Amino acid sequence: MPYRANVEEFRFILDHVVDFAQVSATERFADATPETVDAILSGAGRLSEEVLAPLNRNGDLQGAKLENGVVRASPGFADGYRQIAEGGWVGTSADPEFGGMGLPLTLNSCVNDMMGAACLALQLNPLLTQGQIDALEHHASDEIKALYLPKLISGEWTGTMNLTEPQAGSDVGALRSRAEPKGDGSYAVSGQKIFISWGDHDVAENVCHLVLARLPDGAPGTRGISLFIVPKYIPDAEGNPGVANSLKVVSLEHKMGLHGSPTAVMQFDGATGWMVGAPHKGMAAMFTMMNNARLGVGIQGISAAEGAYQHALAYAMERVQGKPVAGSHGAIIDHPDVRRMLVTMKAELFAARAIALANAVAIDMARATGDAEWETRAALLTPLTKSYGTDTGIAVAQAGIQIHGGMGFIEETGAAQYLRDVRVTAIYEGTNGIQAADLVGRKMMDQGEAAFRLIEEIEEGAEAARAGLPDLAGAVWQAAESLREGTDALLAQQMTDRLAGSVAYQRAFALVLGAHFHLKAALAEGGTGARTALARSFILRLLPQYGALLAEMREGAGDLYAHNIESLAS
Amino acid sequence: MPYRANVEEFRFILDHVVDFAQVSATERFADATPETVDAILSGAGRLSEEVLAPLNRNGDLQGAKLENGVVRASPGFADGYRQIAEGGWVGTSADPEFGGMGLPLTLNSCVNDMMGAACLALQLNPLLTQGQIDALEHHASDEIKALYLPKLISGEWTGTMNLTEPQAGSDVGALRSRAEPKGDGSYAVSGQKIFISWGDHDVAENVCHLVLARLPDGAPGTRGISLFIVPKYIPDAEGNPGVANSLKVVSLEHKMGLHGSPTAVMQFDGATGWMVGAPHKGMAAMFTMMNNARLGVGIQGISAAEGAYQHALAYAMERVQGKPVAGSHGAIIDHPDVRRMLVTMKAELFAARAIALANAVAIDMARATGDAEWETRAALLTPLTKSYGTDTGIAVAQAGIQIHGGMGFIEETGAAQYLRDVRVTAIYEGTNGIQAADLVGRKMMDQGEAAFRLIEEIEEGAEAARAGLPDLAGAVWQAAESLREGTDALLAQQMTDRLAGSVAYQRAFALVLGAHFHLKAALAEGGTGARTALARSFILRLLPQYGALLAEMREGAGDLYAHNIESLAS
């Protein structure tokens, strides 16, 4: 499974689709010059191709193992991780004060995209650390920052997120972990956490857990939760890993995929931790980390799609079956249905990536300018990036298997691994249903203002394209107009109805936005060429799905509750 | 993973949706009285619940193994298989002259549906034997029939299909296996076959291979292929398994799922075989088996969907997270998006099952009456059954994982197994793309006559429902009308365009047909109640997808070939 880092594709999207130039025009990101962008993209590309891609199959076949209480990573992962850390790729967008490169999150997203396409299981490790760095930069005390950030940014230590408990998954507020003040500024943290990705391992010298727990006087629900940093080894006076903390890995899960990423059940037995942020304000701090992580997980979906696409394309160009009715290559890539699948994969991949990078640009702009509009834009795009990115990952991996025919079901070809690995991305960091609830709930608390503003931009984009690409522009304009009307209808719905149609609305929004970016790409090449053909494929073949999706949204919950439990069970 | 056989559901579809009464009204199937139907359904249901379902997880965890050239089935499979055979479930619809029950294929399909929902990997074994029985009944000499049919029907021996070779998958005509006449009426068959499900095992005393091979004077391509029966052990004078034939299992595949079903690479080294059917007419005989098998594989998709649905429903009724905004159960089943997923799963499952059983009824009617119209109907429905049944299996299994949240990715819950097992059903017995090519190619060689006749019936059904269910009837009528126009457009397309839109057209057709059956079900309960709610969900939420699908079909291949290889690879 060779992987080729598609540096040109990132450069094109940055330059012509998501207006990255505005990010490098800010004072904060003035260092992100074209030369720096080139160096970052080609450096991360080389690492991904040469070091990480060769580890991917190992991670699947020989997953992480728990041996005598210690987690052993997959063969080669320790060295791969070391090269990620030494290259500075954990801290691409981290604060330079603590050793980070201080580059835009947009570039970091490109780096994560390449690393994930090469080896998703290993990429998850620095991704989690990046989320922790982000949370500490925003919420931790200066002391904690000074102690932990340099170690995390250099990759000497890694970070995890400890939210979920058996009874508290999507409902984080139901958690039972407790933290008792020890009187010396530290806390004794106790409880069991599940689904802790990279919860322990032997690829770095320390593992820092960000743990959500309740203080003795913490109210029930999410308002009574605080956040703590709980290291595996407590740093000594010099800041080096000292005595072992009172925490352990109870077990590792047997998962459908991502075998190279150890998923731990963690037990904290009065483990020493330090509070991050204010008492009872843990969810706010965690949300910083989660929003970052949601963008990151959306990118994971996209990167798996890239890997699966490249893998299927290579097979389709080699495999000969029958005489294709068109085309000139002679292999199955010339069969119309195989070609349709490949073009669909590539078109969805482009749309998902453009959405994610536009999301990253919005975050960077918000950070660089403090402009609340960028903040709002980023918040609106986050559920779209996460859900559409990961749905695309699954759909492209499914198509990749299908293109392989019978060989797709055989593990040796590697096609199935993409699906097995990417499947969880639609679940973790908030299921895609939770993303949709976030989109139609929290993100519409402004009465749709942010959504309407984005739809306005999409329509302006279509107007600008009307002269050169009338059919595509007309289709996108019409879709945006329907989305606007659909958004009006959504806002008029009761919450139960909104939630029932939320996933359909979320997908419709992503399709329209994806079409918008395709249109920009087509315009950028002058309305003729490969990108225009791809835009045409997306806009004329896939975009029309918005009609059925908005129809489903308008249905609301109505008939769903007409099914009683007995009838569903019969 | 308990499985509950849904006997009432089958009875309802038979009685009220696919008009099974016309089958039992024929002379040939006069034995299929309501009492017999009840006995068959409840007997197969009991076997599936009590014997087969408990084997399902074993088959996944401890797949079939090749040891010293012999395949060992998963723990418990031999006993499970014995009970299938002793119950007569291999030969439910086989010829009574050779020990079969002679019942309609429709009933056999219900039996297979239940057995597959309980344990797909084991069910595949009798499914293949049934295909072989069908091929022998139609094409074999009296001698071969007398020797093999009683053993296959009783389940003492099992059957396989040997078509695929490394270079000949979808392109069967590229096969290289050879058969040389030995002068005594038998042939020496040589070649390598791959993807041979249940190619060897220890659950029955003999394995009979139907092998496609070329005679010395066989023309290249599919017209020069003959069919041979090649037993693992050559029957002796008494018809008992005698000396071992010159064939062996080279290896077993490591697959994404269906671990309990051994998938063998078979090597035939001058193995003794006997011709089935006429020289060079092997494909015709194989098509009998394949059409039967395509219905059977469509049913496999449906049965996996049933298993995954029941499994997810049970979880959704138990798992509590947060406070649902509606409903009264308190568990996640009351969350609108979870309920939407469950209702969607159930609605698609019903549609797929109704299509498959209508297909089976058409086959039974063709056999019982010899009426060419039924033959044509069955041929038209086969690709719809196979593709929509298996696509539904995958979609429902995906949703089942999603409903489980993080637990869906953990193998112990069993949600992932449904997806891993069912994934191959969209590939084997002709990929769903091959089904679509069959639908828009071979099945439209009548200029769409059979399709238009079915669309006419759908419109008549909608007219009949207009008084009682005006909104649903109107939606179905409109969809059928669009399908008719779409079919006209399809017929006017060049073959490359047709093939490019074939999968979209195939799905649109299945959705419209599924809506038709939902409407019939709603009418049958008087337009109010659980089935009407389900019909409403399908028709108002899912059916609208036909618009985008037909739009994609109309696009044809046009832009697909505007992507050259370089642009696809960049």
UniProtKB/TrEMBL annotation, chains A, B:
Its cofactor is FAD. Residues 281-439 form the Acyl-CoA dehydrogenase/oxidase C-terminal domain. It catalyses: 3-(methylsulfanyl)propanoyl-CoA + oxidized [electron-transfer flavoprotein] + H(+) = 3-(methylsulfanyl)acryloyl-CoA + reduced [electron-transfer flavoprotein]. Residues 161-269 form the Acyl-CoA oxidase/dehydrogenase middle domain. Keywords: FAD, Flavoprotein, Oxidoreductase. Residues 79-156 form the Acyl-CoA dehydrogenase/oxidase N-terminal domain. Residues 455-561 form the Acetyl-CoA dehydrogenase-like C-terminal domain. PANTHER family: ACYL-COA DEHYDROGENASE, BROAD-SPECIFICITY LINEAR ACYL-COA DEHYDROGENASE FADE5. This is 3-methylmercaptopropionyl-CoA dehydrogenase.
